[in-house]
Design brief:
alpha+beta, 4-stranded antiparallel beta sheet, 3 helices
C-alpha cells in the first residue's frame, strides 16, 4: 500500500485558521500489493498460532511426564522408607526373641512350640511383643541347637514381609519383600473355572 502526504500552506483553509495550513492526503493504493500483503499476514498469523499450539502441547506433555516420573520416584522412596521401618521392627523382634529365649533358657524352659501358628509358646509370644513393641505377625521357622536364637524368622507388618535366615557360612541375611495385590477373586468368580 502506498500513501503519500502532501503538506500545503494556505491563507485560510477549510479545516484550519488563518496562517495555519491543513493536510491534504493523496491516496494512491495498489490493491494487488495490499491483498498479497494481507494474505501473507494472515498466513503468518496462522503459522504463529500453529507454532504456539505445538509449543503449548509440548510444554503440557513435558509437564505430565515430569509429574509422572516425580510421583514414581516419590512412591519408591515412600515404599523404601516403609520397608526400612518393617526391617527395624523385625530386627527388634529378633532381639526380643533372643532376650526372651535366654530368660527361658535360664529357667530351663523352651520358648518354641511347633504346634502354634507363630512357632512360640503363648506366654513367650506375648513377652516378645511387649519387649519389641511390634504390631505385625511373627512366625519362627527354625531355631539354633540350644534354642537360644531363631535361625529363620518371618515378620509381616502391613504389605511388607521380612525374612531372616542364617546362610551356610552362618551370616545373617535379611530380605524385605512388599506384597502388592493384583486382583481378588470371590466364590462367584471361581465358578467359571470349573
Amino acid at each position: 500500500m502506498f500513501f503519500s502526504l502532501l503538506w500545503g500552506r494556505m491563507a485560510c483553509g477549510r479545516f484550519g485558521a488563518p496562517g495555519l495550513g491543513y493536510v491534504r492526503v493523496d491516496l494512491r493504493v495498489d490493491y494487488g500489493a495490499a491483498v498479497r500483503d494481507m494474505g501473507a499476514w494472515v498466513m503468518k498469523k496462522k503459522e504463529v498460532r500453529m507454532v504456539n499450539g505445538w509449543r503449548l502441547a509440548t510444554v503440557i506433555l513435558a509437564m505430565l511426564i515430569v509429574i509422572g516420573v516425580a510421583s514414581l520416584v516419590g512412591m519408591y522412596f515412600v515404599w523404601r522408607s516403609e520397608a526400612h521401618l518393617a526391617l527395624r521392627q523385625a530386627k527388634n523382634v529378633w532381639t526380643a526373641l533372643r532376650m526372651v529365649g535366654i530368660e527361658y533358657y535360664g529357667k530351663g524352659q523352651d520358648i518354641y512350640d511347633d504346634r502354634t501358628e507363630s512357632g512360640l509358646k503363648k506366654e513367650a509370644e506375648e513377652q516378645v511383643r511387649d519387649v519389641s513393641e511390634c504390631e505385625g505377625s511373627i512366625v519362627v521357622l527354625g531355631s539354633s541347637e540350644g534354642h537360644l536364637e531363631p535361625t529363620r524368622l518371618l515378620y509381616r507388618e502391613g504389605p511388607y514381609l521380612v525374612y531372616y535366615y542364617l546362610d551356610e557360612k552362618e551370616d545373617r541375611q535379611w530380605r524385605v519383600y512388599r506384597a502388592q495385590g493384583m486382583f481378588a477373586l470371590d466364590g462367584s468368580e471361581l465358578k467359571n473355572f470349573r
